[in-house]
Amino acid sequence: MTNKIELCKVTDVKLGEALKIEKEGLVLAVFNIDSEFFVTDDLCTHGPGSLSEGWVLDDLVECNFHNGAFNIKTGEAVTAPCTEKLRTYQVVVENQLIYILI
């Protein structure tokens, strides 16, 4: 059974930026890339960095802790010291609200 979790309004996440959301025991980063929304875990897989506080460039986010980077769309680690893939979530936008399916 799929669970749909409401995260925020589309207007809450500025273009090219990220927003940290804590919902139902999850700590997430919601990204707005060219008006398309992506959601990943907020915690870097390498250390205690918060990806929503990192630097977003195109479809990459650079962690604010050790400067490793991930592809926001796929979760792939693209820059050392990060090597472990980041969890991503299926996103649904309905009535100007962002949801994830888990």
Overview of the molecule:
The protein is mainly β and 102 residues long. The protein has no helices and ten strands. The chain has one domain (4-101): 3-layer Sandwich (Rieske Iron-sulfur Protein). The strands form two sheets. The chain has a six-stranded antiparallel β-sheet, with no helix packed on it. β9 (88-94) and β10 form a beta hairpin. It is globular, with a radius of gyration of 13 Å. 30% of the residues are buried.
Write the layout of secondary structure elements.
Layout: E1 4-9, E2 18-23, E3 26-33, E4 36-41, E5 55-57, E6 60-62, E7 69-71, E8 77-79, E9 88-94, E10 97-101
Antiparallel strand pairs: 1-10, 2-3, 3-4, 4-9, 5-6, 6-7, 7-8, 9-10
Keywords:
102 residues, mainly beta, Rieske Iron-sulfur Protein, 6-stranded antiparallel β-sheet, 4-stranded antiparallel β-sheet, globular
Quick rundown:
The protein has strands spanning 4-9, 18-23, 26-33, 36-41, 55-57, 60-62, 69-71, 77-79, 88-94, 97-101. By secondary structure, it is mainly beta.
| Rg | 13 Å
Tell me the major beta sheet: 6 strands, antiparallel
**Share in β-strands:** over 45%
- Uncertain parts: none
